[in-house]
Design goal:
This protein is α/β, with parallel strands linked by helices and 309 residues long. The protein folds into two domains: 76 residues; 218 residues, Alpha/beta knot (3-Layer(aba) Sandwich). It is 49% helix and 10% strand. It has eleven helices and eight strands. The chain has a six-stranded parallel sheet, with helices on both faces. Helix 5 links the parallel strand 1 and strand 2. Helix 2 runs antiparallel to helix 3, helix 5 crosses helix 6 and helix 10 runs antiparallel to helix 11. The longest helix has 41 residues. The N terminus and C terminus are likely disordered. Bound molecules: S-adenosylmethionine. S-adenosylmethionine binds next to strand 5, helix 8 and helix 10.
């Protein structure tokens, strides 16, 4: 059998180790001739390992892309950004707290309806808790944050426990956390339930409306849940204006999806609210892997749809 110095093993990556493993199997085949099952087993391990590596690489590049997007966005907002390195941590904390408190008095209202978690797996509940953390993180960084409500969140629920476990300082989040429903809190005519399946596109965001996001993650894709929920509540509903501002982009997997995570929809609303431009908001936050790009005609923002304060 070929001798492989131990430092080579240490230096090479996992896939190279497996390549070496492959060589080892072939060499063995000359002498010991491992059984067909062993060969199949190694092939399977190798295939799974490659699949896992591809997934890891794709996740890494998505994270990098997301990071770059956030950085770009923060640079664009640098005039009002709390990321200014000249500010001390204490000042940043004070500004953030002041903005969030102000938003609770006068901010545009966004509500996350968490009444549908019973039909979710533990993994989905964990992902939802993570999305709520990112949503709050975006709101903290915003120059003009939203007044955020988490409704139907009972203290004895899996999601509440998961939020406490995963989200540092969850109990100190400057947002309304309540077991009441959005209908208990707001008149039905003020509610705009956001659903990817709604017929009407959202044109603008208004101070006298409450924008409700369905607290769902799409692991086990449950179609039209938010649409059914909004119909059941008899409230207005709207979808993001993706068809109006974006076009399909060819990709190898021919994958196109307009369904976003709640924190991504939240980021789009925040940017639209601060810039009045759907093009800008969608360009900044619509995930690259969803198979859509901004339509090349740059005059998409219809007149009179600039965000109102
Ligand atoms: C992961 S999506 C849930 C998708 C789910 N299949 C459903 O029934 O809506 C979570 C929430 O984000 C919001 N959302 C996601 N994509 C949207 C879009 N294109 N337009 C409007 N809202 C969207 C909706 O409020 C939705 O309930």
């Amino acid at each position: 059998m070929a001798h492989i110095p131990s430092d080579v093993w240490q230096l090479n990556g996992v896939s190279e180790e497996l390549e070496l493993l492959h060589i080892e199997v072939e060499v063995d085949a000359v002498g010991n001739r491992p059984g067909r099952e062993d060969a199949l087993y190694s092939k399977n391990v190798l295939r799974k390992q490659r699949h896992w590596e591809r997934q890891l690489a794709s996740k890494k590049s998505k994270r990098k892309e997301e990071k770059q997007r956030r950085k770009l966005h923060q640079e664009q907002e640098s005039g009002t950004s709390t990321d200014n390195p000249k500010l001390t941590k204490r000042v940043v904390k004070a500004i953030t707290k002041e903005r969030l408190t102000e938003a609770q008095a006068t901010g545009l209202k966004v509500c996350v309806d968490l009444s549908m978690t019973d039909c979710m797996s533990d993994k989905e509940v964990s992902r939802l808790a993570g999305q709520l953390r990112r949503l709050y993180g975006s709101n903290r960084k915003a120059a003009r944050p939203f007044h955020v409500f988490l409704t139907d969140l009972r203290e004895d629920s899996r999601l509440y426990r998961e939020c406490l476990r995963m989200n540092d300082g969850f109990l100190n989040y400057v947002m309304e956390i309540t077991a009441e429903s959005c209908l208990d809190l707001f008149p039905p005519e003020t509610i705009v339930y956001l659903s990817p399946d709604a017929e009407k596109a959202l044109e603008t965001v208004e101070a006298d409306k409450v924008y409700v996001l369905g607290g769902l993650v799409d692991e086990s894709i449950q179609k039209k849940l938010s649409y059914s929920k909004a119909s059941e509540l008899s409230v207005h509903m709207a979808r993001l204006p993706i068809d109006e501002y974006m076009v399909r982009k060819d990709n190898a997997k021919n994958f196109h999806s307009k369904i976003l995570a709640i924190n991504q929809v939240f980021d789009i609303l925040l940017t639209f609210r601060n810039t009045g431009s759907w093009t800008r908001a969608l360009e900044t936050w619509f995930p690259g892997g969803k198979g859509y790009v901004i339509a090349s005609d740059d005059s998409q923002t219809p007149p009179g749809t600039a965000a109102q304060t």
